[in-house]
Amino acid sequence: MVTFIEKDCFNHCRINIELSIAGIILPYTSIYICVRIISILMDDGTGRCSRILIATFYFSFISLVTGCTNKKLSQPFNQDSSYSRKDSLLTSKETPDNSISYDTGKRYIYITLDDGPQHGTMKCYHILRSLGVKASFFMIGIQGMEKRARLNVDTIRNAYPQFLLCNHTYTHAYHNKYKLFYGKPDSALADLAAAQDSLRVPLKIFRTPANNSWAIGGKYRSPQLTRAFCQAADSVGYKAIGWDVVWNFKNGATPIQSTTEMVREVNLAFDHHEAFTRNHVVVLAHDRMFEKPQYADSLYKFIALLRQDPRNVFETIDHYPGVAFNK
């Protein structure tokens, strides 16, 4: 009786496991076939010990599959509902770094968005596009490898002159290990170059992860931590772009300042000459802050309020003073 119960329980368990495998059989077909062959061979004349071994093999396989799947889905990339495939096909005859003439009576604003492609990237894209406002997207190389993420990268790259694709390193400083990353400038420079190549960034413009660093044509302003890296990058033609006003967030993505507070900070940066370059203010925000509708509306209102001042001109960061590349 005990043997029968064990066998019945084992068979019932195996059937359930096989059904689970069948549900994910397409990506794991070859492994599943191997498991079934081993099961048949071991069931032929084997006793209780062999059945336990094959059951253990099944459970190990399911654990492996579940673990891999969970790991992959721990930070899923969801394509924004506002995305249209035709967006990635947009092209422009203009190329980045077309020179411009500055009007002394104007105030130049550079909207910059970090950490894409991620949730909220295409929300930002469509909001800014609908308002006719220029912006620059600083993207992370490793986040642009999946097919859907790659479409977002292509969309931004192809949308010049309204949007400019820029470099935010390949690994975001070894996944936020800042001391390790900046402590080895040569390795950090290789990481930067990897993002430049993988994302096909048109110009050597980048931002240092989690640090407000400037390096433009021998002019530096950066914390000690990033100085050696910025100097190394500058020596091979890169321009490091920091920020003058930052839209802070909490809980990973929730904007802290209101739209009116942000407008006030921008005006103060102009009026008190607090920017890195007088009359040119760089605003930093992160794509994910505007994924949810209520916060997407905050971005829209912020830009709309700034547009009400006729002095304000929005530009991509390749038109920032000193950021010029010989063609």
From TrEMBL:
Gene3D superfamilies reported in the protein's UniProt record: Glycoside hydrolase/deacetylase
Start and end residues of each NodB homology domain: 103-178
BP-aspect Gene Ontology terms: carbohydrate metabolic process
GO MF annotation: an example: hydrolase activity, acting on carbon-nitrogen (but not peptide) bonds
Pfam families tied to this protein: Polysacc_deac_1
Residue ranges of the TM segments: 20-42, 49-67
Keywords: Membrane, Transmembrane, Transmembrane helix
Domain of life: Bacteria
Name this protein carries in UniProt: Polysaccharide deacetylase family protein
The species this protein was found in: Panacibacter microcysteis
